[in-house]
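Sorry to interrupt, but I need a hand with the structure work. It will help me judge whether the discrete encoding reads sensibly. Write everything out right here, beneath this request:
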Amino acid sequence: MIYFTDIPPQFAHAIFNYVLGLLLSMVRSPLDGSQELIANGLTLLWQIIPYLHGLVLKDLKQILRKEQAEMLILVTGNVPSTKKVIIHGPDASQIPTQAIISEETLFSNVLQEALDFFGIPNVKRDRYYLVDVKTKQIHIPDTYVRDFYFFRRNIHPQLSLVYMDIKQSRKELEHMSIFLKTTELSKVLFARYLLENTPFNQIHNCITFFHDEFIKSPLFPRKALESDFNLYTTIHDKELFHLDMLHKYNWTKLIACIFFNMDGKTSTTSDITLFLSVINGSFILHCEDLVMLRFCLATYINIVKHFRNVFATNG
């Protein structure tokens, strides 16, 4: 795609529909090895956004919500969590257990319940991990269950408690972390390019959509600032660290784009404070990087200039 300077809109729409259909099929019927297809599909999706015309966010959201793929593609995605997961023990002959899931449940909480139920000795507990039965994907303990499993009537996710040695578990966790960060980066780029390429006469509707969705989303700004600190220095060449920096950089670009297309004379300050937390978090997390430091400071200055009436009144 990067070798094309211009793509006909009809061809771009055909590619978009094909890739979107592929991603939806992966959501409906996840398979072993589908991670790579999803990551590649999302990467291709945001690259063709500049060549699309007439893409309406509200309509796209309705389609994705109907297909239960909103969380996969949109940064504004917000779907209720599954209420229960089934956990199978290390021995297939053991009776599975169930874990009740809330909106704030981490996989570490589910893992602890499973370890207690199956009577795993304390000396071996740090070698056990939760793995999805269908996709064989390992789950990072510090991630939220609601980000992976959504509410479906009479359908409950199946997990397995699996023993892994240190080398294998580290490899699986690193692979999963890079996949998650790549997909999150692609989602932010999708939103950013969609916003930047929206015609002037439609930009207000687009800004309103993002603003309203972020304000009511319980995942914002958590998803924008999540970072895997424990894996930053272990992966070769700090691949995850650099991916995270790109992720935070593009989130800052997205927030800046939303701000600069809003009315500078707005009287509400609570919304500005919430959105600024993304830039503040990016600034703190990557303050040692000169590029990120300069970009965040420049964004601060431009925001203050744009909302000078608000900052002059409320500080």
The first strand starts at residue 84 and ends at 88.
